[in-house]
Amino acid sequence: ILMNYGGIYLDNDVFVLNPLTEFLKFEMTIAWDEGESIGNQILIASKNARFLKLWLKSYKYYDSSRWYYNAGQLPTSSILESNPHLVNRVKERFGVSCCGVINYIFEKNIDLKRWQYNPPEEIYEKDVWLLNTTFGQMARSVLKI
User: Fold this and answer.
1) In this predicted structure, what is the pLDDT of residue 96?
2) Which of 76, 36, 25, 35 is nearest to 54 (CA)?
3) Nearest-angstrom CA–CA distance, 37 and 28
4) Which PANTHER family match (predicted)?
5) For FRET with 130, which of 47, 71, 102, 139 sits at 20 to 30 Å CA-CA?
């Protein structure tokens, strides 16, 4: 769809906090933190973006045994490291850099048995207005629209 029409792709777990319109002026915008592979949770592209064409072609080297190889590692090393001009590089703002923090919190601070066997309580719309949590803030921002 992006190749044929252009537009914005979002993973189904992305919560957009600010407008993405500032990125529409670029041929292709992608998350790419310093020293890391690209992140593909948010892709903003013009129709026939050159990077998308090359990225799609790189799938002829598909390797199902390596997680994130074709989605991030290969296009970064084989395309973007030598052609960074093909994309508008967004560092830190698209949520890629927080993954290490999330993994640390999850690995160090969650009692898995409690998490696995005690599902969260149901939250109703009326309760969201009182939640003093990040989720509460996110939910209220959506409900205010």
Assistant:
1) 64
2) 76
3) 16
4) ALPHA-1,4-N-ACETYLGLUCOSAMINYLTRANSFERASE, TRANSFERASE, PUTATIVE-RELATED
5) 102
Virtual torsion, Cα 22, 69, 10, 143, nearest 10 deg:
-110
138 is written with which tokens? Answer: 């996110």
> Each residue of 35-71: pLDDT tens digit?
999 999 999 999 999 999 999 999 999 999 998 999 9
Token readout for 61 is: 């080297």
Residue 106 in this model has a pLDDT that exceeds 90: no
- Does pTM top 0.85 for this prediction? no
Contacts of 87 (CB under 8 A, 6+ apart): 26, 27, 28, 29, 30, 32, 51, 80
Task: Output the DSSP codes for 20-89.
Answer: -GGGTTSSEEEE--TTS--EEEEEEE-TT-HHHHHHHHGGGG--TTSTTIIIIIHHIIIIITT-GGGSEE
